[in-house]
């Protein structure tokens, strides 16, 4: 892996919440650090309640990770657009994040170590 991106097992247990609901909890999260950006926690897909997520049409490309697809979080009161992303076929250097999801944190979405 290049030195621009580092991936390690995130220590401890992690949870993601939105709209008053726990979307997932895991002890198998990964922490990805890219350049000077803050670390991002990636959750294994199997530890996320996918029923809360709706695939969106949004897609982006990262020269280091590949093509990302996005999901919106559907809560009881609202839809949080494009709040989740996943690299379905990541570049070889970051292959560990395949089948993982990351969440944009905000006032509406919390990713926390528990």
UniProtKB/TrEMBL annotation:
Q: Where is the DUF427 domain?
A: 15-105
Q: Which InterPro entries match?
A: DUF427, DUF427_sf
Q: What is this protein called?
A: DUF427 domain-containing protein
């Amino acid at each position: 892996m290049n030195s621009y991106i580092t991936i390690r097992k995130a220590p401890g247990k992690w949870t993601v919440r939105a709209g008053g609901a726990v979307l997932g909890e895991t002890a198998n999260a990964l922490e990805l650090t890219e350049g000077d950006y803050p670390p991002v926690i990636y959750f294994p897909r199997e530890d996320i309640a996918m029923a809360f997520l709706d695939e969106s049409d949004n897609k982006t490309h990262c020269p280091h990770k590949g093509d990302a697809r996005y999901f919106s979080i559907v809560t009881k009161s609202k839809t949080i657009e494009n709040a989740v992303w996943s690299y379905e076929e990541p570049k070889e250097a970051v292959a560990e994040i395949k089948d993982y999801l990351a969440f944009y944190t905000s006032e509406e979405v919390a990713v926390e170590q528990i």
